[in-house]
Structure formats: structure tokens, C-alpha cells
Amino acid sequence: MRFHKSNGFTIIELLIGLSIVVLLATITIFQLGSSRETGELRTAARQLTADIRAMQARALSAKNIKICDTGTNLAVCESSQVACGVNPCTDGIPAAYGLHLETSTSTYVLFADINPEASIDYHYTDAGEAYQIRSLMPLFGKDVVIDQIMSSTTSVTFADIAFMRQNGTARIYDITTPPESALLRIRIRHLKSNDTIEIEINRITGRISTL
């Protein structure tokens, strides 16, 4: 009797092949996830840098903003009249435009300085000065956060970077002010990958750099 050799796969060969497929799929998924997280972090850094430059440009253009008098203070109604209620919005002249940043958060505030305190007219005084809350990620995702803020060599929990109207001079306000810091460094971090990107603002030169 003649026996014919089978051309099929053995169970061991099938298991080896399946293991290779699973391994390749796992590597591919990991790489895709890592690539997405890297992209999200870089996008967040580009957006934050763009917003800083936009505030600088808005200050240089000396553009007015819509404000109202609530009876206790002034409030911005550029994009929403919620803070003003029935009080009418009129053109206002802010002393500066800037950003308010806090550590361990995924959002930051774009503000117009319209309520100066004790002759300090380059920082975020109250919620009435906010005209937009920005998220580091689309749809207010929370995977990218402001991880650290360095004022010169001191770690701080919050900081305001503002640009004075018309001349665009950069000003920095934080818990150590005075003296006013010459450098502000903002580190953002992706919570899943732990990768970070730093943005540095030089108050003296007005330069904004991504590190």
C-alpha cells in the first residue's frame, strides 16, 4: 500500500503562524497608537504657540474688543454675552492681550486686560477678562496637559504671558512677581506616552520658541 504525504499544515505550524500574525498586529497597533499620541502632542504645542503669537499680533494691531459694564467690573463679550446679561456691549480698549496658564490642566485662557489691579495692568485679574477658553486637544480632550511652568529657574503653578497694546512688549506675571521673569518655559505632556514638548517665551526679545 502506498501512503501519500499530506500537503496541509500541522497544528504546530498553524500555531506558530498565528503567533507571528498576532505579534505583527500588536506591533502595528502599538506603533499606530504611539504615532497618534506624538501627533496629538505636536498639534497641541503648535496651537499653544500660535495662540501666543496671535495675542502678540493682536496687541501690536491695537485692536479694540467688545466689553460691557456689569456694575461691579468690566467683562469681555467678544464671543459671548453671558457674562454681561442685559448690559450692552461696546468697544473697549484693553491694556494688554495675553494667556493665563495653570499646571495640571488641559485648558488655558485667552484674555484681554480690562480690569487692572493696583497699577499692574498685564495679568489675568478675573473671569470677566476671559474671552475664550482653549483646550490643548480638540473637543476638550484631556490627554495633553500643562505639565510644568518655569519662571526663569523657579517652578510655578500659574503664569500670565501678556503683550502690551500697540508696542507689543511681552510681560510675565506669576507667583514670583516681582521681580518680573525674563524667561517663561511651558512644558506640555501627553498622559499616555509621557512625551513632552517645551515652549519658551523670552520677555526681553519677544521670541517664542518650541524646544
Describe it for me?
By secondary structure, this protein is of the alpha+beta class. It has a single domain, classed as minor pseudopilin epsh fold (3-Layer(bab) Sandwich), CATH 3.55.40. It has a five-stranded antiparallel β-sheet, covered by helices on one side. A five-stranded antiparallel β-sheet has the order 8-7-11-12-13, covered by helices on one side. It starts with 10 loop residues before the first helix and ends with a strand. The model has no long low-confidence stretch (mean pLDDT 87).
Average per-residue pLDDT, rounded, comes to: 87
Distance separating the two termini? 78 Å
Query: How many beta strands in the DSSP annotation?
Result: 13
Range of helix content: 10-25%
User: Structural class, from helix and strand content?
Assistant: alpha+beta
Strand order of the largest sheet: 6-5-4-9-10
Low-confidence stretches: none
Shape: elongated
Major sheet details? 5 strands, antiparallel
What is the highest CATH level, the class? Alpha Beta
CATH evolutionary superfamily? minor pseudopilin epsh domain
Order of helices and strands: HEEEEEEEEEEEEE
Cα Rg: 26 Å
- Beta percentage is 25-35%
Indicate the CATH architecture: 3-Layer(bab) Sandwich
Number of helices, where a helix is a run of at least 4 consecutive DSSP H or I residues: 1
